[in-house]
Predict the structure.
Amino acid sequence: MSHCVPPETALESKVASELNNLLQIISGTSALIENVWDGAKGSEKYFEMLRTSIERAEQVTAQLVARAGGTAGKVHLHLDFNAPSNVVTLPPAEPRKRSILITDDEPMALALLGNLLGDAGYEVSTAQSGFECLDRFRRAPHLFDLVLLDLAMPCMNGEETFMRLRQIFPATEVVLMAGFVEAAQLARMMNNGLAGFLAKPFTSGDAIALADSVIERARQRRTGTM
C-alpha cells in the first residue's frame, strides 16, 4: 500500500531543497569573494551584513526543512573547496567599461566626440543641453566616471551646469570644453573642483589622453594609491 505525500509537504520539500542549493552557492561565493577582495576601505561592514543575511536565510531554511519532514535545527553551510563537486565555478567577470557623459549643444560635435570615445573603449552617453545633462546624471550619478561639458550652451551654460552637477554629487569628475573661456571664469571653476579643460578645437589624442588621465587620477584617489 503506497503512502501519498500531501501536495503541500512535497512542495515545501522541493522549495527547501532549492533554498539549500541556493544558499550553498551564495555562502560559497561569499567566501570566495572575501578571499580575493582587495580590502577596500569600508568593505568589512558590507561583508558582515552579507554574513548576517546568510545566517538568517539558513535559519529560515532550517524551519522549512523541518516542516517538510527533514532535519530540524539550523542548516550549516560549510563548503569543502577541495572537493570538486562542491566548488562553485564562476565565469570571469568582464571589466566594466569606463563611462562618459558628453554634453554639447552642437549635434555634429556631439556625434563626432561620442564616436571617438566609443571607439577608444568608453561607454558613451550624450546630452544636448545642460538640462538634459542634469536629468541623465541625476538618475544615476555613480554611473559616470567623467562628464565632458561644453561651456557655451543656451539657457544653462557649462559653468552653471557644472555647479549643479557638483551639488548632486560633489565627487563628480568634470572636464570643460570651450573655444574661449575667460581666465577668471576658468580659475573659478577649477577652484570649485573642475578636473580639466579641453580647448576647442582639440585632437582625438588630446581628448582620449585627458579622459584617461582624469579617470585614472580619480581611481587612485579612491584607492589611496596616489
